[in-house]
Specification:
The structure holds two protein chains of two kinds. By secondary structure, chain A is an alpha/beta fold. Chain A is built from 15 helices and 19 strands. In chain A, strand 15 and strand 16 form a beta hairpin. In chain A, helix 4 runs parallel beside helix 15 and helix 8 packs across helix 14. The longest helix of chain A is centred in the C-terminal third of the chain and has 20 residues. The two termini of chain A are 29 Å apart. By secondary structure, chain B is mainly α. Chain B has one domain. The chains are: A alpha/beta, B mainly alpha.
Amino acid sequence: MSSVRDRNESAWLLPADGARTNHRLRHDMRRFDDTDEVDLVVVGCGAGGSTMIQRLARAGWRVVALDAGPFWDPDTDWVSDEAGSHHLYWTEPRVISGSDPVPLGSNNSGRGVGGSMVHYAGYTPRFHPSDFETYTRDGVGADWPIDYADLKPYYEAIEEELPVAGEEWPWGDPHSYPYRPHPVGGNGEIFLRGAEKLGVTAKVGPVAIVNGRFGNRAHCIYRGFCLQGCKVNAKASPLITHIPDALAHGAEVRANAMVTKIEVDERTGRATGVHYVRDGVSRFQRAAMVAVAGYSIETPRLLLNSACDRFPDGIGNDFDQVGRYLMVQGAPQTAGRFDAEVRMYKAPPPEVSTEAFYETDPSKPYQRGFSIQTVSPLPITWAEHIAAQGHWGSDLREYMSDYVHWSCLGALCEFLAQPDNRVTLSDEKDRHGLPVAHFSYSQCDNDTQLMKAAQSVMEDILHAAGADEVITIDRYAHLVGGARMAADEQHGVVDADCRTFAVPNLYITDGSVLPTQGSANPALTIMSVAARAADRLARGARNGA
Amino acid sequence: MSVTSGAAPRRAADGPPERFPGFDVLEQSGHWDAVTSGVVLSRVGMPPDIRFFTPAEQAVATALCDRLLGQPDEDDGTGTRLPLVNLIDARLAEHRTDGWHYHDMPTDAQAWRDTLAALDADAQEQYGTGFATCAHDEQTALIQAVQDLGSDPWHGLPAAHVWSLWTRYACTAFYSHPTAWNEIGFSGPAYPRGYKNIGVDRLEPYEVHDAIPSDDPLRRSR
């Protein structure tokens, strides 16, 4: 593989003088007219969308990415503060329901250029080979129309571009990382200590946080506010890992542009561009090809809101597949109390993980598994933990005053894809007058068993490390699925190359195409799937032929 | 709702015993970046005027939030009583909500209005006076009754979702304040300086050890 700088110069296009944004690059960005028929318009500038435009701009395509949120400048727009980071999240109205409704917003929904990777923790594990064939192996979930080997070269490429730091990785397809693991803080120390006593293998990483110097990106300063947007440019997000290179190769990023509808020509059956609203003005960008990358809630919503005569139930929804098989991971967090001061807020929340419980264990009553990672809640999030134990009033204050003594682990449980966990359109409308997403979620028995098993292992690790008390809060993390990849149009929305079955020049290149999720944080896989789709496009015809 | 002016207060009134004596996160504010300073220091100054709640709602919300976070009714002179209702009111007035709402709940803004009215109605029914004018133990009993319902309905809304709404907003307001950080030993913003001493029991020069490290509330409650 060629050197990373030859493939993606983003880190070298950032300023070297301590500022975090190359304003000249943005100022000089190529700008297309709405009437230009660009080669590709991408909807959403997060993990999937940004990777697409960087790859295709490099291949000489004329590309525009529209994002509903701002074009962030970490220096002026982000703060080292929990409550002050509310604007990083997608907080447009949404309705949640089901037997286990999943809160959205701050936990799993990003906004602006960089998408959810602006506020993700920074964990970037690969999926295991088994994740691509859970139905064949375990009789649950679904098989992907591609396998691990198809994605492997893209995993390797993206890991170099972010770049990822971590120990030799023994799980799944064993591999190494381009950068050495970071030193760990109190929380990581506790996890490693407890795991060792218990005989559970735990490793430092894998995190997409610079360890050393990478281009003009600075070394991590261990300030602990990874989830509030990295002001250091140390934690990877597409804003700094792919967008600079895309702009340098002639891509346009049009921020604050909310796409409202994909237009399909009724006669040809092909997409002709997208309607969007910017500064209150309704506009239409012509394009020879459209790629939607709005993530698992907004992508299905846009397809459903784009209903037309040819697609009365929404684009790509002839077989009632749009919005279905949406997944979250069960993410219980278990904390342990130590007389020593852990001060888990110091150092990045992502430090140490284990995938020792990832695969199906035939001796257990459940299928698939879970991973365990350090999570290090800041005070407001920690208060949720304490309040979840039923404490309030002066009682809550006393428990909270104990904050520095707690260590907190989080699990990611592989919840199974189910058809009724889905996005539909609500009767409620947003400020543009468009129906908002209604997201229904219910757990199955296997999901519930995994939550309990993961909690029990986390309790064991913390006790082994010396904790005298443990508490647990049940929560959820991540979103994938909702417009999944499948072998045919009766089982999914897109094919193995992320092309919709219904419209030949309409692609979906984000987390919503994932048929399963493993117990891995999805960012790296979303980028790799998009990179593969872009690669296939760049090698083929531009018009989706 | 008043806030002590002048020197920054070190701890909140009526709070738990002081565990981090001499620790004042605001003493480090000179090391914060300007944008973060602007956001955090704005919470220490004048609280925003009430714009969303009606005076009747404000009265109920004030008593509710003070009980939820163990605050006294009035400043007792030993510290600051945090203006929780002003901070919640600002979020609702400016639509700084999380966006999502449960299908069996109205939007957050309407849910606040509805639940404050319901709490006031409970007080009238049980004690013959409004919630704000009930005694502390009566207010506490009324709040506890909502929590005890779990997922059962309360005035037509799932009590657990009501509880989640109240505690989410009240805890976010309280633990966004530097005075609350002093109480829990949290060092606050750390950019551009970062941390030099990470690891168990390793402190920065300006951090203060817990004076009563074995005072584990869980252990004590057993």
